[in-house]
Design a protein that fits this description.
The chain is α/β, with parallel strands linked by helices. The chain has two domains: 167 residues, Response regulator (Rossmann fold, 3-Layer(aba) Sandwich), CATH 3.40.50.2300; 150 residues, Response regulator (Rossmann fold). The protein contains 13 helices and 15 strands. The strands form three sheets. It has a seven-stranded mixed β-sheet, sandwiched between helices. A six-stranded parallel β-sheet has the order 4-3-5-6-7-13, with helices on both faces. Strands 1-2 form a two-stranded antiparallel sheet. The longest helix is centred in the middle third of the chain and has 17 residues. The radius of gyration is 20 Å and the shape is elongated.
Amino acid sequence: MRRREFIVYFGSAATAWPLVGQAQSAMPVVAFIDGGSPDASAPRPTGFRKGLSEAGYVLGQNVTVEYHWLEGRYDRLPALMTGLVHRRVAVIATSTSVPAALAAKAATVTIPIVFGVGLDPVKLGLVASLAQPGGNATGINFLAEEIVPKGLRLLHDLLPKAVHVAVFVNPSNVAIVEPTLRSVQDAAATMALQIQILKASTIGEIDDAFATFVQDRPDALIVIPDAFFFSRRGQFVTMATRDRIPAAYWDREIVAAGGLMSYGTDYADACRHVGVYTGMILKGAKPADLPVLQSTKFSFALNLQTAHALGIEIPSGVLSIADEVIE
């Protein structure tokens, strides 16, 4: 790793938490791992802390939480997991990152793991079954394979004349790219859409991908869920607005930042469930006995100001089903 993971506690102000070796109490230590950056991922740790609180745990009183931010650098995971296993943290909690969940599962069969993933955890090999996980891992599936095609359909309803759609993926997020792309391509075929796949895993590659639009301009674009992309939401929104390209995302936070539309799960609520399960395990519950949950809260958000800037008139039928309209 080029630099050491840092630990941040989000409360009324940001303060550094000590490493376990420097801890001043025997409180259980939970490692919370997020693929994004501290500033960008605030709703996730907020939801996690809320879940911990519901389970009876308050930071600094009866539990210590370390926050490890990958900032899109999934290559940091092996070293991070080695350290966590060596120090025998009480629980490893991964917010909404398939790579982090898989790395945790590969690193330990004894330390409890609570995950948030967007793919079937049985197919991923994280659990034996949804009802009876059977090992040291359990958590919640927020159904990315289902929500991304749904987002594409809503984008098509919003722009019925669109034919050529660019799809942004992060190739370094290997586990989620292939199955999610497959579901998007299947959905696109039913709507007679032409899909152009754009790969980016760095800031510069995002710039380069947008530069291709000068010669091969899509009618719209959709961004596949990824923590790095979320941390770069300002870049996506700015460039899509600059190039006047309607874009669909998966998180309403991106729409609040100026994106046109999003459809996705409530990630703060998903992380709340991760927090609740973490608290239950700290009290003695076994991951093997806690069934994997599935997200039930989904949101379709629209930004009217962005639509107006792009010259898009939102069909009344689409507007009527929006869960949130940002004006």
